[in-house]
Amino acid sequence: MEQTFYEQVYEVVKLIPKGRVTSYGAIAKSLGAGGSSRMVGYAMRYAGTVHPPLPAHRVVNSSGLLTGKFHFNPPELMVELLEKEGIMVKNDKVQNFKTHFWDPLTEI
């Protein structure tokens, strides 16, 4: 049976290494759907219902902003999880974003 777009997104998210982040757009591009970063965001909204749990905290916007933090309970949990992995966050933005960025197109 063919995977849904959301399931494909979740498969990519599972691959994001600890201590790294990627963007909605990078995930979309890796799936051949470059203009669908918003759809990736919609998929991530439901990431908390997936088993086993996904490292959803590693998905940020293309500037490194934690735009999905309000889907965590409490929202500060996203920052805590990233910082536990050695990623510094200041004002809801990943510091040294390019250093921590994981590109699924080139690193899968």
Give the overall form. globular
Name the structural class: mainly alpha
Number of strands: 4
The portion of residues assigned to helices is 40-55%
| Gyration radius, in Å | 13 Å
How far apart are the termini? Answer: 23 Å
Mean pLDDT: 95
The strand order across the widest sheet is 1-2
Topology pattern, helix = H, strand = E: HEHHEHEEHH
* Poorly predicted runs: none
Q: Main sheet?
A: 2 strands, parallel
| Number of helices, where a helix is a run of at least 4 consecutive DSSP H or I residues | 6
The fraction of residues in strands falls at: 5-15%
What does this structure look like?
The protein has 108 residues and is mainly alpha-helical. Helix content is 41%, strand content 7%. It has six helices and four strands. It has a two-stranded parallel sheet with strand order 1-2. Strands 3-4 form a two-stranded antiparallel ribbon. A hairpin with a 2-residue loop joins strand 3 (89-90) and strand 4. Helix 1 crosses helix 3 (37-45) and helix 2 (24-30) packs across helix 3. The model has no long low-confidence stretch (mean pLDDT 95).
